[in-house]
């Protein structure tokens, strides 16, 4: 007899993955930056944790996505980037109304508004990057052991 998970547990698992992919990765990146700041100084920590590239978020998202989905093996995990993509598109459309696509590129994905736009980047762009990296890591974990992957939906 096979065990079928209910919709509520599938939705709860997806929400848990979404929180891990965004807030969990951001918190881990903050802790990593704090530890590196005490060792190497503020400039390295800022480069790793602050935008516009967010390398700590991307690297941690990839590793956490791989490790978490290696354990849980859910097929829904690679899709945690979708809500963050929708939120980013909403933000891009709001910024585009203010000043066009160059304004969007400069303020959300560049250093034009630095340091004023860092808060916006940390709330929208960094979690998007982290969730995409988490999804890629989760997908790689599924590809590593495809026969044991659990049904997503």
Question: What layout of secondary structure does this protein have?
Answer:
Elements: H1 7-40, H2 42-49, H3 55-72, H4 81-108, H5 118-144
Helix pairs in contact: 1-2, 1-3, 1-5, 3-5, 4-5
Give an overview of the whole structure.
By secondary structure, the protein is an all-alpha fold. The chain has one domain (7-145). Helices cover 75% and strands 0% of the residues. The radius of gyration is 17 Å and the shape is globular. The mean pLDDT is 83.
| Radius of gyration (Å) | 17 Å
What do the pLDDT scores average to?
83
Q: What is the overall shape?
A: globular
For the secondary structure, the number of strands is: 0
Major sheet description? none
Poorly predicted tracts of residues = none
User: Fraction of residues in helices?
Assistant: over 70%
Query: Helical segment tally?
Result: 5
Beginning-to-end CA distance, first to last residue: 19 Å
Secondary-structure class: mainly alpha
Order of helical and strand elements:
HHHHH
Number of domains: 1
- The share of residues in extended strands comes to under 5%
Entry summary:
This protein has 153 residues and is mainly alpha-helical.
């Amino acid at each position: 007899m096979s065990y079928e998970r209910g919709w509520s547990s599938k939705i709860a698992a997806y929400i848990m993955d979404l929180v891990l992919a965004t807030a969990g990765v951001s918190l881990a990146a903050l802790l990593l930056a704090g530890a590196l700041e005490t060792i190497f100084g503020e400039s390295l920590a800022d480069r790793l944790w602050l935008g516009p590239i967010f390398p700590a978020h991307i690297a941690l998202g990839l590793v956490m996505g791989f490790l978490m989905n290696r354990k849980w093996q859910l097929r829904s995990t690679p899709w945690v980037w979708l809500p963050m993509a929708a939120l980013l598109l909403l933000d891009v459309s709001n910024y585009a109304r203010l000043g066009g696509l160059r304004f969007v590129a400069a303020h959300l994905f560049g250093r034009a508004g630095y340091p004023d736009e860092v808060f916006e980047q940390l709330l929208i762009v960094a979690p998007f990057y982290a969730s995409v990296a988490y999804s890629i890591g989760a997908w790689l974990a599924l590809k590593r052991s495809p026969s044991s992957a659990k049904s997503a939906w």
